[in-house]
Amino acid sequence: MYRKMMEYLEKWKESEHRKPLILQGARQVGKTYAVLEFGRKCYENVAYFNFETNPKLNETFEENISPEYLIPILSHIAGQTIIREKTLIIFDEVQLCERALTSLKYFCEDAPDHHIIVAGSLLGVAVSRSQFSFPVGKVDMKTMYPMDLEEFMLAMGEGDLVEQIKNCFAADTPMPSALHDAAMQLYRQYLIVGGMPECVMQFVNTRDYILIRHTQDTILLIYLNDMSKYNNLNEIKKTRLAYDNITVQLSKKNTRFQYKLIKKGGRASEFENAIEWLCLSGIVSQVYKVEQIKKPLENYRDIDAFKIYVSDLGLLCAKKDLAANDILYMVEELNDFKGGMVENYVNSQLIMNEYKTYYWESERGAEIDFVIQRNGKLIPIEVKSADNTKAKSLKIYMSAYKPAYAIKLSVKNFGFEDGKKTVPLYAAFCI
Prior knowledge:
Shape: globular
Number of helices: 17
Mean pLDDT: 94
Distance between the termini: 22 Å
Number of strands: 13
Strand order of the largest sheet: 7-6-8-9-10-11-13-12
Order of helices and strands: HEHEHHEHEHEHHHHHHHEEHHHEEEHEEE
């Protein structure tokens, strides 16, 4: 399956400023598959080392972590000669071996001709631990996310439809209605399947929602196990409580995160470490409220006001145990949850395009779902789950801040009117 990550990896390989690459991201997003496929396509051979399946590997790094010492030993373990610039060295699940992570400093300084990528599922969590000696300034870093809707459509063999969507987005011209309907159907399928590569592959091959739900439940179980395995004992229960509660809070009319909803009398001091763990693990992301619309937005965020969204839509639907047909037909019983679910979808597409997302609220309660910096401009984004797209909040925001334009995401076709760019939900990946 095509992943946009491949383009980044190819540029990394050719860069004269290349450093060892740390590829991080939540479990099951396709990191191992991407780097192995990249190695197979772009190198003469691949030397792959997994610290989870081969715990004895750790012993190799105990005595000496200089490349001069490591390369002959790693060549022997891999059963092939590691050659500069021709072999891709991969360390997988590197969070299990602190010394391997530290060795990247010496690969950068003493052996820059060796191409090395390390991948880890909980690197953010591991690196935040005090004992980790992180090779600051000596590595390139990249985060990998689940597949976005464009990658999902390409996996479904809809390359021509993707091109049409991109063209209509650029020109603000409506899609032919048959194609618009087809793209909306794919969007709803994506809400159920999500972007975990294994789930997408199963859907492409079987169209069996029950099989996919089983896979999603397994991934959720792996996440729960990680919360126990890579966490302080007194934080495990809090982390699980917080994670379970995130999906509940997305069903509220006001999706701003409230600690007191996790448990009666819950406070920030009790749960903020748990929230941080979930963010560092890549399972969720925080979107902060901005108090002023000025650059840089980060300077004006309210650290006490934020929303939390999960990283994958399919896992969100699995966690809520939503039936596939209810989402395909957007039944009325889902009305309370639709808004939060669609906001979550848009946030995930924006993050996959490497935007830092914020939201805005006026003193009188007008709210803009997302504010991003796009091509140097601060752009408000209004999200509607249905075709009721009257947006009083957007009018208030535009009157106050005079943005270059605004984006309205809904089920309506492409268009541009009164400074508002109308974008169908399935085209969020174009932003």
